[in-house]
Amino acid sequence: MTIAQSRQPQEPGTGGPGSAAGPDEFVELLPQTRRALLHRLAVGQSEGRAPSMVGAVIRGGRTVWTSARGAVDGEAPHDAVQYRIGSLTKTFVAVLVLRLRDEGLLRLEDPLGRHLDGTPVPDATIAQLLAHSSGLTAEPRGPWWERTAGELRPSPADLFGERPQRLPAGRRHHYSNPGYALLGALVERLRGDTPWDEVLHREVLEPLGMRRTTPRPQPPFADGWAVHPWADVLLPEPAEDTGLMGPAGQLWSTTADLCRWSAFLLRGDDRVLSMESLAEMRVAAVPPEGAWDAAYGLGLQLVRREGRLLAGHLGSMPGYLAALWTDAEEDVAAVVLTNCTSGPVVAAVAADLIALVAEHEPRIPEDWRPRAEMPERALLELTGPWYWGANPHVLRLRAGRGLELAPISGAGRASRFRAAEDGTWTGLDGYYAGETLRVVRDADGAVSHLDLGTFVFTRGPYEPSEAVPGGVDPWGWRV
């Protein structure tokens, strides 16, 4: 089998806002880092007994490493060879749904039945479908849908049996492929009955320059194989058009295109979806209790691995495995594609590629620069120490009119806040996500205290003020 040489850094071509990076981030990876990456890919292909495997690393919005092992049609696969990406398709459908939300055509809290007639779960919300918490069955009825033609399920009613809902909606995570078929139908309905893949091409793939991501294979592409478990022989796998189940796993793509997709998932592109909406997708929608290693956001799988939070998705179809992970903190992503049904642990390979870059070459922080414009004096006056009872916090001014409130100790409830038009702020994350932060003023117009979802923050610890619920002992602090 042929070894493909590691390639030079490439521009993913997102071309939109958020794609710029500092010059240090574009420096070519060190030779020892590149060799470590090649070694991990080679071990994954060899131990996984994959006919071919391609990998790529994206850092600072650019492709900084690609390589391949094995062969497709007798040659080392290059970054324009298509592989089927399976459930990575779901990340594309989720972005389409978030676009509809951002345009005001739906709310994530809306029941599906408000927008789509004849669904088996009309009361399940769109957010629950995105996060696989609608309780829908994991697979459509009928024969193995990934290896049979979509014509066997010609209408939405053909996707579900007598018990389409196996669990109460919203109670727990239960992966559902038919759920994403319904989300694809939702996109089609709200885009004037335009097929979901046409909407995807027009609104996402074309702006991002992803010309080799298609619903059906286009040469050159890698044939899909099953590898015999006890002998080094191959069996071809069928590559069916899955019809209505397409939004769950139909797409074909390349490492070059998925590098563009990874850069977009990390940095956003206002022509497609904002950084804020992408960050929302990376939050666990049905948070596990206590410590957790795996969860699901809005169309993105989440895993904790060696202290890192990775967001992305895995994909599998007969003859193909795919993995795409992003690490927002390190601004690094990795893609791994292979053309066999089982064997290679592509999720681990992709995660290890990120870890190798982060360990060998930690991210260089961007230059600190002062603000370009002086903020309002009233905002500056809000910054500094605040006390919830006797617990000291600090309020910092962030980009625009954003705020961040955190305990000075570093442990406890911390949240970022987005300014609203009515002069309040809305929590973006942490305990106070969705809660309202208000500045309360006295009769003279001076700031009295902060009200955060009924929690009162004063300028001193338990200041003698009527603002503190229950009042403050008139004798004050004592020994």
Automatic annotation (TrEMBL):
Q: Name one GO molecular function term.
A: hydrolase activity
Q: Does the keyword Hydrolase apply?
A: yes
Domain Beta-lactamase-related, residue spans: 46-358
What InterPro entries does the annotation carry?
A: AmpC-like, Beta-lactam-related, Beta-lactam/transpept-like, DUF7586
Location of region: Disordered: 1-24
Q: Where is the DUF7586 domain?
A: 376-459
Q: Where is the composition biased (Polar residues)?
A: 1-11
Q: Which Gene3D superfamilies match?
A: DD-peptidase/beta-lactamase superfamily (3.40.710.10)
Signal peptide: which range, if any? none
Q: Which UniProt keywords apply?
A: Hydrolase
An example of a Pfam family matching this protein is DUF7586
Name the record gives this protein: Serine hydrolase
Q: Which organism is it from?
A: Streptomyces kronopolitis
